[in-house]
Amino acid sequence: xxxxxxxxxxxxxxxxxxxxxxxxxxxxxxxxxxxxxxxxxxxxxxxxxxxxxxxxxxxxxxxxxxxxxxxxxxxxxxxxxxxxxxxxxxxxxxxxxxxxxxxxxxxxxxxxxxxxxxxxxxxxxxxxxxxxxxxxxxxxxxxxxxxxxxxxxxxxxxxxxxxxxxxxxxxxxxxxxxxxxxxxxxxxxxxxxxxxxxxxxxxxxxxx
Length: 208
Known about the structure:
Elements (H helix, E strand, L loop, with lengths): L1 H7 L7 H18 L6 E5 L5 H6 L5 E6 L2 H14 L4 E5 L12 E7 L8 H11 E12 L20 H10 L3 E14 L6 E12 L2
Helix pairs in contact: 5-6
């Protein structure tokens, strides 16, 4: 999976639909989280940094993490060319040591959780990385019957059932778990070959 995203990095931002979705979701995150400019944020699965770049003007600093070095290299070039110093890119993913990471006020993520094998571990890790009162905003696929991804072996989950995902995050310690509609993606089903609409939810939650 990591190799797939490393290779895809150079053309990742050339998909106008992907770029528009990132803008739509980032704006929805800003609207629901209401950052006041003092927050330290983790963007988990940052890719080429489109969520981080959109949110950055509204917060103090962002640590943008990903396991794909190719993606991070594209982000680093964006930061260099635009002189952005409030975003730091790091190679990191759930399951690795968290000791070198600071505590966060906010954790955001777009279309990454379905690539994490153990969702419960991800939920507990996010909880531990947040300061008390911290919040998450995670956007991902509703259950898709394995029809979204074209390449085999890319996703660990065929989207998510919202009630089950809520249970997982509540068991990790989160409260005020809420879902809203994030975006829609029109593409051909990888299983049927027919056009289909895929829905993206935005889940928010709070660490007491």
